[in-house]
């Protein structure tokens, strides 16, 4: 029987949404959330160690997002991840218009609602996290005349699928995780948007397409700082950029850098301690 690494993490203060969003940056397979701690899982052969997680948590601590933490490692027998996802994945009403549902939940849509079917498995982007909700809500308000979209760090494909259902004719999603590409393709098929949406195993530097009307990136601050030139170059003049995966404390650094590269902040939204920013390329 295969085994998996299990890490129990508790922090003071304990903010489960904050921790879950940040910990997905590590090489993990899944997260289980509880009232006062969470558990992350990695493959038995994974190189992820207790020290790696400790170092990661110390960075979060240094940024004053947590005061202290405890970490315990153990091993468990193989988990049926699909069953684990199904236990905790429900229908999510992101806004009055946008609803995300898995195939195994029934939902009767209201008039004019846009229902997106997503079976997330292990990919980030279920719609439950604040950053996904923020980007989807901003997509509602910034999709006029948007015919082409680039989704950087596409995960489940939910953002690109939503953009296509809102009218985009060409959507390219990129991710560096093979599992995300597989899951994205499955979700694209579930929503019957194969003719409009594709996902590629690629980094943003690999994208050689013509500039896009809209670029969305729901990833962490450090990557967004590193790829600013790629994002700007892949955005059309008068096009827009939606960024998330960001905490309130990240705003100043992101805005300063992106405005230096010719973008103008035109809109923003906030849920809890998370934010999403909309820029226009002048």
Helix/strand layout:
Elements: E1 3-12, H1 16-23, E2 30-33, E3 38-43, H2 50-62, E4 68-77, H3 81-88, E5 92-93, E6 98-101, E7 114-117, H4 130-141, E8 148-152, H5 158-165, E9 170-175, H6 178-190, E10 197-201, E11 212-218, H7 221-226, H8 228-233, E12 235-247, H9 251-260, E13 263-271, E14 274-281
Parallel strand pairs: 6-7, 8-9, 8-11, 9-10, 11-12
Antiparallel strand pairs: 1-3, 1-4, 2-3, 5-6, 12-14, 13-14
Core attributes:
alpha/beta; 7-stranded mixed β-sheet; 30% helix; 4-stranded antiparallel β-sheet; 282 residues; single chain
Walk me through what this model shows:
37% of the residues are buried. The chain has nine helices and 14 strands. The protein is globular and about 50 Å long. It is an alpha/beta fold and 282 residues long.
Distance between the termini: 57 Å
Low-confidence parts, pLDDT < 50 over ≥5 residues? none
Write down how many β-strands occur, each being a DSSP E stretch of 2 or more residues: 14
| Spatial order of strands in the largest sheet | 10-9-8-11-12-14-13
The SSE string, one letter per element, is EHEEHEHEEEHEHEHEEHHEHEE
Mean pLDDT over the residues: 90
Global Rg: 19 Å
Class based on secondary structure composition and strand pairing = alpha/beta
Number of helical elements: 9
Overall geometry: globular
The main pleated sheet reads as: 7 strands, mixed
Give helix % range.
25-40%
Strand content: 25-35%
Briefly say what this structure is.
This protein is α/β, with parallel strands linked by helices and 282 residues long. 30% of the residues lie in helices and 33% in strands. It has helices at 16-23, 50-62, 81-88, 130-141, 158-165, 178-190, 221-226, 228-233, 251-260, and strands spanning 3-12, 30-33, 38-43, 68-77, 92-93, 98-101, 114-117, 148-152, 170-175, 197-201, 212-218, 235-247, 263-271, 274-281.
